[in-house]
Design goal:
It is built from eight helices and no strands. It has 190 residues and is mostly helical.
Length: 190
């Protein structure tokens, strides 16, 4: 419990976000090195498909489907969406010729950051609050006294639990931008 907040909560978030960029850059480098840059186009399709399949978790959570363990499907959602995002970053590359794809990539990065906040920061905050309450109770406080003392921490965690109210609209906006991007590609590219 004495480990720093930055090391416990922020570092894993930054680490996964940075690793996504490092892997995308490495894949892009390899494709350029072997003169296979055109493969990046297909990584966009594969990445989009991977992210779309990862939404099986959302269907299960909303009881649209009944199969699969919610916990396992959440893990699948996290890794498939993260992997799909890497593929889309490689697909996007460094092209400054169109605004819509860049908006979609920006929204993708915001959606990934939002998802990682849910994965790491919220989960860790809930654990830290539980540990603080238990530590206060071990020092002789009642549960009610500990909760009263840690009211602001509890309030912060409760607010963080509402992160889905931000994550879902971001994801829907990302989906809209992706659909518009695909439509414009079909309409304007030979």
């Amino acid at each position: 419990m004495n480990r720093s907040i930055v090391r416990r909560f922020v570092f894993p978030f930054v680490q996964w976000f940075a690793l996504m960029f490092i892997i995308a850059i490495a894949i892009d480098y390899i494709l350029h090195r072997f003169n296979a840059v055109s493969a990046g186009r297909y990584l966009g399709y594969a990445g989009t498909l991977l992210i779309a399949v990862s939404f099986v978790y959302s269907l299960r959570k909303r009881k649209v489907i009944r199969f699969g363990s919610p916990r396992n499907l959440l893990i699948m959602h996290e890794y498939m969406a993260w992997g799909g995002s890497i593929m889309i970053l490689v697909h996007a590359g460094i092209h400054f010729n169109a605004l819509l794809p860049w908006l979609a990539v920006l929204m993708l990065l915001i959606a990934v950051a939002s998802g990682l906040i849910g994965k790491f920061l919220l989960k860790k905050s809930v654990e830290a609050l539980r540990e603080k309450v238990q530590a206060e109770m071990k020092s002789g406080m009642t549960k009610e006294e500990a909760e009263k003392k840690l009211f602001m921490d509890s309030l912060t965690v409760d607010l963080m639990k509402k992160w889905r109210t931000v994550h879902m609209p971001i994801t829907l906006l990302l989906a809209l931008l992706v659909i518009l991007h695909i439509i414009t590609i079909v309409m304007f590219v030979e």
